[in-house]
Amino acid sequence: MAVLFLKRTGPPHQRTGADLTALEFEPPAMPCLIAVVRPLLLVLITATAVPAQARSYKPHRARANEVRPMLGGQLMFQGPRLVERTLPGAAALPFIGLGVDVGGSLMHRDRWGFALQGSLLAQGYLLCADGVCLDLYHGTQRFEARTWWMLRPRDGQLRSLRMGLGFGYHLQNRNDGDDEKNNVQFVFHEPLQARPYLVPEVGRFFRVGASRTEVSLRYVIHLDRTPAWTTVATSPVGTATFTASGDHLALVLRYHIGIRRAPEAAPPVPDVAREQRAWNVLDTLHTRREHIVLWVKDNAEQDGDTLSILMNGKPVLLAHALTDHWHRVDLDLAPGANTVLAVAHNEGRVPPNTAIATVRAGHGRKRFLLRTGMDASQAIVLFREHRP
Predict the structure, then answer these.
(1) Tell me, what's the pLDDT at 271?
(2) Among positive and negative, which fits the CA dihedral 17, 19, 25, 29?
(3) Is 274-384 a CATH 2.60.40 domain?
(4) Which of 291, 380, 294 is nearest to 334 (CA)?
């Protein structure tokens, strides 16, 4: 539902206490919205002393996909249009507005994500005619879906710019009103509307523990160019007609609330005498990725082979019975060399223990034949290079 709040002002030397009162034909939406937005913005700004305060938190390893509740605030800038005038001193001036966002987001490894949100907005406009100015706040509801992606992720530090694109609907009910000041009458008309819009964004994320803070600049473009409202100012010497599309530029601050969970217990080290076995490196692969997927399956006949895979001495796959189906192993690489070691638990019915492994570290996939046994293991070294 859309709500209109107007404040009348004249030239500074003519203003009185009565001039600063709100019209009573509609509830005062702007003070109510400010009362909600002000504490929210204070909480968000305090929580996001960016980026210095964010560095004081211990790094939090996010899961591959994180769902987070989201709260946000907007500071908007928009201007009306003066489409017709015979009234002297008529002017349409840009003004500020405020908004509140509530929704949720899904992020994949801080590289790309998707969000759904609803918003309450109060867009400000300043209309002047024949020495009288009117502060008009136009309240609307919006529902939006948005996707975003990192332009160049760097070592999980969220340092690169984020691009986003949203699509939503602007909703408002029919509303009419009028006011008169110093022989100038303002007549306001707002039609019933549901207009689609596109909104490109550019911004950055900052890590705050398990949470994420987002600072963005966005521009809302309505695809339906029908005016959101029309106001006609009339005096004995002429008229002036003002309209606005609702398009606006906004500075947005959003807080994606992370949910901390108890750390999972580390799997036990394989109960095999791996330290006494000889092992050799099949290959060393170089990559700039921080996340690699390793796929393994039995080679040729399925004969009961069982193996464990360790990365830098820690199990990432424990006592896995190989089959003729691919099994996925996710590897989070530390900077520098990462040793991925295959350790056999048995040799199956047909020695030795053999498995096929594929990994994609750069362009294309690399395929390996792992031949392990009770006296030998094999390894692949993944060297993660620093992004410039």
Answers:
(1) 62
(2) negative
(3) yes
(4) 291
CATH no., domain 4-256: 2.40.160.20
What's the CA gap between 26 and 91, in Å, rounded?
A: 25
User: Rounded to an integer, what distance in angstroms lies between the CA atom of residue 169 and that of residue 256?
Assistant: 22
Residue ranges in the chain assigned as alpha helix (H): 29-47
Count Cβ neighbours within 10 Å for each residue of 134-154 and write b for 16 or more, e otherwise: bbbbbbbebebebebebeebe
Average pLDDT over residues 124-131: 88
Q: What share of the chain in percent tops pLDDT 70?
A: 76
Residue 44's beta-bridge partner residues? Answer: none
Which regions of the chain carry the CATH code 2.60.40?
Answer: 274-384
Mark residue 37 as left, alpha or beta (left: phi above 0; alpha: psi -120 to 50; beta: remaining): alpha
Least trusted range by pLDDT, from 161-165, 166-170, 363-367: 363-367
- Portions of the chain given CATH number 2.40.160.20: 4-256
How many other β-carbons are positioned within 10 Å of the β-carbon of residue 47? 17
Contacts (Cβ under 8 Å, ≥6 apart) of 212: 68, 107, 110, 158, 205, 206, 255, 256, 258
